[in-house]
Design brief:
seven-stranded parallel β-sheet; Aldehyde Dehydrogenase, Chain A, domain 1; alpha/beta; single chain; 40% helix; Aldehyde Dehydrogenase, Chain A, domain 2
Length: 421
């Protein structure tokens, strides 16, 4: 029984258990990891009524805290979303096992045969807010990559995360893998987060998944390496050669499908030549869909818009709000994105392939899209089964962080008695 009053001691014990479990997981077979994930998926579905009941407590807590509608949507679980959780677990189970994959292999004139192969990172700490499904996604991906994981869910999702975590532990038991492979911090106390950030002896990398406040805190204070994105300030540029029908469909989906996810569009840039045609149609459609459009320049002449201010550029709303401005050309759009973007996901809508290539070449966001909704910025949609987050840094992992990105590598060197002169 963990002593919840002594946070440092509790976290040290959790870390030591995770480190021990990671040693066994490093060489666990693909079949056993697959079996654990399938058993966990079955357990989640069987426990769906209990998970929904636990989630109702979290929703009441969130309402009491005054969470925004978008944050409440992130928090909410119903039967359809629980089914998506089980499908995510099964999808990760079905992915190829990255551990042991030969990344490169070559022979040297000195008699050495060298392989670079994927190996687990070890112990991963995941700190997240609101979305209880992250408990399943993070647990599954870490397990698939042979890592132990310490999960610290948000205070809002406390009960839901515990219910889902119990199902993951059932899966580990069923596959005869260490139960400590997936641990959930059993307290809402923020001191546990501070401890995780300094556990350099037992945690190999921290993955924060949440709002700017959480991610900024982790990036500032962590002594453990971090995979993170600070914000999803997602831009869509409608080029003068955009297809009107595609533009309307993509922008509406990118903004309104789910406003609270990091791939939701937050800023719309419209080529000056089409402001009065495609631009007007798109802005009116957004307003008709209930989106508040904070507009600049000629776009302000459209009924229902409100004037944009300087604070509207480079802002992550996570709500039914979008900033919109005309730009002179594609280079002006690129310059705006460089200045105000967050290197997460940005999109161009155009039928001009030269414009697409210029956009792709001159921007360095982790994900760049052409004629596709930015809501696809998700590991599941990329074929990774799920993802633990979108990394916008340039070291190790970038873009959706799936199982393969949760590995490092080592060199295996063999020879026939080679010696160095």
């Amino acid at each position: 029984m963990k002593d919840l009053d002594n946070i440092p001691a509790m976290m040290a014990e959790i870390g030591a258990r995770a480190r021990e479990a990671s040693h066994a997981l490093a060489f666990a077979t693909s079949d056993r990891k697959h079996a654990a994930l399938i058993a966990a998926a079955d357990a989640v579905w069987e426990a769906r009524a209990g998970i929904i009941e636990a989630n109702s407590k979290d929703l009441a807590y969130g309402a009491e805290k005054g969470l925004s509608p978008a944050m409440m949507d992130r928090l909410m679980l119903d039967e359809a979303r629980i089914q998506a959780v089980t499908e995510g677990l099964r999808a990760v189970a079905a992915q190829p096992d990255p551990v042991g994959e030969v990344i490169a292999e070559w022979d040297r004139p000195n008699g050495l045969h060298i392989k670079r192969v994927r190996t687990p990172l070890g112990v991963i700490g995941v700190i997240y807010e609101s979305r209880p499904n992250v408990t399943a996604d993070a647990g599954a991906l870490c397990l698939k990559a042979g890592n132990a994981v310490i999960l610290r869910g948000g205070s809002e999702s406390f009960h839901s995360s515990r219910a889902i975590h119990a199902c993951l532990v059932e899966g580990l038991k069923a596959a005869h893998l260490p139960e400590d492979a997936i641990q959930l911090v059993p307290t809402r106390d923020r001191a546990a987060v501070s401890e995780m950030l300094t556990m350099t002896d037992t945690i190999d990398v921290i993955v924060p998944r949440g709002g700017k406040g959480l991610v900024g805190l982790v990036q500032r204070e962590a002594r453990v390496p971090v995979f993170a994105h600070l914000e999803g300030i997602v831009h869509i540029y409608i080029d003068k050669d955009a297809d009107p029908e595609k533009a309307l469909k993509v922008v509406l989906n990118a903004k309104t499908r789910r406003t609270g996810i990091c791939g939701a569009a937050e800023c719309l840039l419209i080529h000056d030549q089409i402001v009065d045609t495609i631009g007007q149609d798109v802005i009116r459609a957004l307003i008709d869909a209930g989106v508040q459009v904070r507009a600049e320049g000629r776009l302000q002449q459209i009924d229902g818009t409100t004037p944009a201010t300087d604070e509207d550029w480079g802002r992550e709303y996570l709500d039914m709000i979008i900033a919109a401005r005309p730009v002179a050309d594609i280079d002006a759009a690129i310059e705006h994105i460089r200045r105000f973007g967050s290197n997460h996901t940005d999109c161009i809508l155009t039928e001009n392939l030269d414009a697409r290539d210029r956009f792709f070449q001159r921007l360095d966001s982790a994900i760049l899209m052409h004629n596709a909704s930015t809501q696809f910025a998700d590991g599941g949609e990329f074929g990774m089964g799920a993802e633990i987050g979108i990394a916008t840094g340039k070291m190790h992992a970038r873009g959706p962080v799936g199982a393969a990105q949760l590995t490092s590598f080592k060199y295996l060197v063999t020879a026939q008695g080679a010696t160095r002169s």
